């Protein structure tokens, strides 16, 4: 297989490509067949600390934070152009690292370029605002400034997309950063740093360290020179990062997991509901934070809908990223495959009815990859393990509801609150349910679309803060109030005599 990233030094610190201080490396293997994709440097705590120092210097002494936001925006627009110019290279690298279908990676690169374009365009559009002081003798304004040194820790499911959602707004706002992508999928982060350099990013402003969460991520979350840590990943890791960051009261942005309800009323268009229910959960083999893993279906539709979903799930073709006959790919790792299988076994043990899947596909073609069949677990009980835990695999659980109130109650009965959907032919009911769902994104008669100009993030334990949209830029800004007295004279609050 072609190399996604060559074996030259792959850490980027203070404007230089460097090897890890301890000389360690890691092999990146394609989850579809175990083929070697790249050998990259494996950073340790010393590399992380060096990268933070470089970002600190670039922020405290460098020109980037005070460069005109318009110029910062121009750089992001150049990055967007490079992404589109090199789309084939980026997409191939993403597919090799993740095993996802090439066409999905190509969509991702389009979305990543759009994200850079959006933040490039809005970077200079908000110079702050004048505030009425109530006095002709004073003026007051609120202005937005960068937060400082930002560390970014990202997952493997949408490797470059999750990076872009952080890097683009952070740079637009004038911050410096240290990025640690998932140790499993570093190739496109390396390519992105090359693109940032080509676009003219000054030395020290963007730094890349590759390594594990325990060794490198923990330093990025704890280090006193870091002002903000932005994390996307699992709930348990998010809790740890939040606790580490608390010691120095860093700002924390968390994009965590989801257990996302897909509510289907009996009056929904049947074919549409079936089609979207499948895409909602089986896209990228369920390794999507907003996957519609909980089908919540009205009683009278249950049997017909679930029968059809099972029939169609059994026709989903599984294969490698470059196989023309594949509809979906493998799971990321053997470890993750084991977790998904354990989740299914535990759910069945507590009473879920396994309608299809629940095992690896048979055949030589799948022997070297981490494949798992699309799985449907019917008749799961509210509050059970199956509906409270995220499987992050191709597993659909099915619950029933009787009426609108019941649907909302069940859909909200989760400690997560990332995304949800409602399918119905009644627009009024759709709006009522959408308004009552306690989730950061709600789709009506659709699933999955998001826009760079619309905020993304979680209610409840799905996270803190927002990415994308104006609020996504705001995460990386401090609001400063500047008040000027135009007629300075003694107040004599504490009189001289
Ligand atoms: P993970 O939490 O295991 O790892 C995410 C990142 O955190 C990796 O870079 C990892 O190296 C690092 N990490 C691990 N332990 C750490 C520690 N102690 N300190 C600092 N960093 C540490 O998650 P994952 O398995 O890579 O990703 C899957 C999870 O991500 C799922 O729960 C999914 O829902 C979530 N996710 C959420 C969103 C969103 O937008 N809300 C998007 C994508 C993925």
Report on the architecture of this protein.
The chain has 497 residues and is of the alpha/beta class. It contains 15 helices and 20 strands. 38% of the residues lie in helices and 19% in strands. The protein has a 7-stranded mixed sheet with strand order 14-15-16-13-12-17-18, with helices on both faces. A 6-stranded mixed sheet has the order 9-8-7-10-11-19, sandwiched between helices. It is globular. Mean pLDDT is 97; it is low at 1-7. The chain binds nicotinamide-adenine-dinucleotide. Nicotinamide-adenine-dinucleotide binds next to helix 7 and helix 8.
Write the layout of secondary structure elements.
Layout: E1 11-13, E2 16-18, E3 25-29, E4 36-41, H1 45-61, H2 69-85, H3 87-98, H4 102-122, E5 129-131, E6 138-146, E7 149-153, H5 159-172, E8 176-180, H6 187-199, E9 206-208, H7 213-222, E10 228-232, H8 235-246, E11 251-255, E12 261-264, H9 270-282, E13 294-298, H10 299-313, H11 334-349, E14 353-356, E15 375-378, H12 385-388, E16 395-401, H13 404-412, E17 419-423, H14 427-436, E18 441-444, E19 463-464, H15 469-474, E20 477-485
Parallel strand pairs: 7-8, 7-10, 8-9, 10-11, 12-13, 12-17, 13-16, 15-16, 17-18
Antiparallel strand pairs: 1-2, 3-4, 5-6, 6-20, 11-19, 14-15
Helix pairs in contact: 1-7, 2-4, 2-6, 3-4, 4-5, 9-10
The chain binds nicotinamide-adenine-dinucleotide.
